[in-house]
């Protein structure tokens, strides 16, 4: 564990980023009067919003690239989880005997409350939010992690009990990147929840096996008395069940009564079942859970209804950055009514299931990005009879084509099955662009 007394220590924060972890770590270190240097490969212009949040703090910056001496000549490196442990600068730090940690490790090493942690390939943010709503009927819940909030600054307020509730819990959404680093300290939550498991982030982990091995860290170090909530219909989850000493609780579409949900899609019903399987273990009744989530309308970029015009609905599912997630999104709507926008940056994953789903259920497929030739070839190979397929230059062109094709009762769905890189900085920017185009072109 990194000591709390960091006064005068030279600390390099590697990877400021745009999503909060690096920002929170830098602020927390400054509070402890460490000598902080922030380094990032992005330029000051690209990090303007993040830098604004650190304005006025005594921080040295090295942006637009890294220098090895910043990693070898300091007392501690706090790395963004987006930087792989195999990164040459982190390797240099370790070779120089400089400890390397992450924001999430700084938090869990200091957290004394019971922790519930959610991970998976897709569905983890929605499941985390559904579970938080359920648990808040009985507990004070601190929700953070990959869902976008650092809990470092909540630590002083965390108590074992709180007025008006049975107690307090921490609920963390954890990415495979975070779990890779947490595995180094053999950390485990009291309750783990694994949502849909597939394959992703091969550019970071290198292989499917390495990616799943990181996910396995969620349950690997749990002990007797802990609980692992796993999907009974998932072969990977069944295999994971042999890697934990925790009590395994299974969930499926049929294991418990269905919830009445506002958010569409059978995959969201499964997310709700995963959340409730964990909540039930912590004393939440089905009736209380249903009341808590009945009005939940979903998170941004996750089958988010962003516009309606002339009987046409526009759903932003930009979070669907793998093909199987795009297939699941399509299945949330009636067959023959969906104009689906797919494509983007290829992640070296199979498009078979996505092609099959589109051929069976979509009115048309609009393809964009550098993955377009691969998607087109896959569809023509598997379903040569499927004719409503159009390759477009970019998202704007795809939306103009959708305007030609859409009729009252149709759905225009952005669920690409690919990363956003090449045309957009991230999936959030892509989703915002889709919503803006929908409102601009359909009015």
- What do we call the CATH topology of the largest domain? UDP-N-acetylmuramoyl-L-alanine:D-glutamate ligase
Number of H- or I-type helical stretches? 17
User: How many strands, which pairing sense, and closed or not: the largest β-sheet?
Assistant: 6 strands, parallel
Number of domains as seen in the coordinates: 3
Give the name of the CATH architecture of the largest domain: 3-Layer(aba) Sandwich
Mean pLDDT, as a whole number? 95
Strand arrangement in the largest pleated sheet: 7-8-6-9-10-11
Distance between the terminal alpha carbons, to the nearest Å? Answer: 56 Å
The amount of beta strand, in percent, is: 15-25%
> How much helix is in the residues?
25-40%
**Approximate shape:** globular
Number of strands: 17
Compute the gyration radius: what is it?
A: 22 Å
Structure description:
- By secondary structure, the chain is α/β, with parallel strands linked by helices.
- The protein folds into three domains: 10-101, Rossmann fold; 105-293, UDP-N-acetylmuramoyl-L-alanine:D-glutamate ligase (3-Layer(aba) Sandwich); 304-441, Mur ligase, C-terminal domain (Protein-Tyrosine Phosphatase, Chain A).
- 35% of the residues lie in helices and 19% in strands.
- It starts with 9 loop residues before the first strand and ends with a helix.
């Amino acid at each position: 564990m990194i000591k709390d007394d960091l006064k005068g220590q030279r600390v390099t924060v590697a990877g400021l980023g745009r999503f909060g972890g690096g920002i929170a770590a830098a602020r927390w270190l400054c509070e402890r009067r460490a000598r902080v240097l922030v380094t990032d490969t992005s330029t000051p212009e690209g990090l303007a919003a993040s830098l604004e949040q650190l304005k006025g703090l005594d921080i040295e910056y090295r942006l637009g690239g890294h220098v090895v001496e910043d990693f070898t000549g300091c007392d501690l490196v706090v790395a963004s989880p987006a930087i792989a442990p195999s990164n040459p600068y982190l390797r240099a730090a370790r070779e120089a005997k400089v400890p390397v940690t992450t924001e999430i490790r700084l938090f869990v090493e200091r957290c004394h409350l019971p922790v519930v942690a959610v991970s998976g390939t897709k569905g983890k943010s929605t499941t985390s939010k559904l579970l938080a709503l359920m648990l808040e009927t009985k507990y004070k819940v601190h929700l953070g992690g990959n869902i976008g909030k650092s809990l470092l600054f909540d630590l002083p307020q965390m108590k074992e009990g709180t007025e008006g509730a049975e107690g307090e819990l921490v609920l963390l959404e954890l990415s495979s990147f975070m779990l890779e680093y947490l595995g180094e300290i053999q950390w485990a939550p009291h309750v783990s929840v694994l949502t849909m498991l597939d394959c992703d982030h091969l550019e970071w982990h290198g292989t499917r096996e390495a990616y799943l091995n990181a996910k396995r860290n969620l349950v690997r170090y749990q002990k007797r008395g802990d609980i692992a909530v796993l999907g009974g219909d998932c072969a990977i989850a069944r295999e994971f069940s042999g890697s934990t000493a925790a009590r395994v609780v299974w969930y499926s579409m049929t294991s418990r009564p269905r919830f009445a949900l506002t958010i569409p899609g059978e995959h969201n019903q499964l997310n709700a079942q995963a959340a409730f399987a964990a909540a039930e273990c912590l004393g939440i009744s089905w009736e209380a859970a249903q009341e808590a989530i009945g009005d939940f309308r979903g998170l941004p970029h996750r089958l988010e209804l962003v516009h309606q015009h002339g009987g046409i609905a526009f759903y932003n599912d930009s979070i669907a950055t793998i093909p199987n997630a795009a297939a699941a999104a399509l299945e949330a709507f009636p067959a023959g009514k969906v104009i689906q926008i797919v494509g983007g940056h290829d992640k070296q994953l199979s498009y078979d299931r996505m092609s099959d789903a589109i051929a069976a259920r979509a009115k048309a497929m609009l393809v964009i990005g550098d993955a377009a030739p691969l998607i087109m070839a896959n569809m023509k190979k598997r379903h040569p009879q499927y004719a409503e397929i159009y390759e477009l230059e970019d998202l704007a062109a795809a939306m103009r084509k959708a305007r030609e094709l859409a009729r009252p009762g149709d759905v225009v769905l952005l669920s690409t099955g690919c990363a956003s890189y090449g045309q957009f900085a991230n999936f959030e920017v892509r989703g915002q662009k889709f919503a803006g185009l929908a409102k601009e072109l359909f009015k």
